Amino acid sequence: MSDSDRDVLVRGVDLDAETRCAHYRSDRDVVALRFGCCEDFFACYRCHEAVADHEAVPWPRDRFDEPAVYCGACGSIMTAPEYLECEHTCPHCDAPFNPGCRRHVHLYFEKPS
After folding, report:
1. Rg for the chain (alpha carbons), in Å?
2. How far apart are CA 10 and CA 5, in angstroms?
3. What is the sign of the dihedral through the CA atoms of 85, 90, 96 and 102?
4. What is the mean pLDDT of the chain?
């Protein structure tokens, strides 16, 4: 994957062009996250529950240097640390990200042991 790849397949329920889904539709809900179980990008953990046929597994810490977060606003792909350190704003296009997603970070990224 490149830094900007509009060909990334994002899975979910009732997605719009910027990855907002049926569960999260604010202007700031433009992030899709990659899961360790299937390596697919989903608009949110609830979309994974609805669409996937398996239990969700967060993105593993030993793969934090690989692409794991997609900005639906500009198509940029980030690593987990880039996303976690970006202050709720895309480092590529300055699109605002939903700060409430921090409440679910443990569902998307493996915690340190």
Report:
1. 13
2. 12
3. negative
4. 93
Q: How many CA atoms lie within 13 A of 63 on its CB side?
A: 16
Three-class SS state of 71: strand
Query: What is the tens place of the pLDDT at every residue in 27-42?
Result: 999 999 999 999 999 9
- Positions of E strands within the chain: 10-11, 31-34, 41-42, 67-71, 77-79
User: What 3-state DSSP class applies to 61?
Assistant: helix
Confidence of residue 6 (pLDDT cuts 50, 70, 90): low
Instruction: Say yes or no to pLDDT of 2 above 50.
Output: no
Backbone φ and ψ for 68, nearest 5 degrees, come out as -145, -10
In whole angstroms, give the CA distance from residue 41 to residue 61.
17
Q: Give yes or no for residue 97 having a pLDDT over 80.
A: yes
Say if CB 95 and CB 26 are below 8 A apart.
no
Domain positions in the chain: 10-108
107 three-class SS: helix
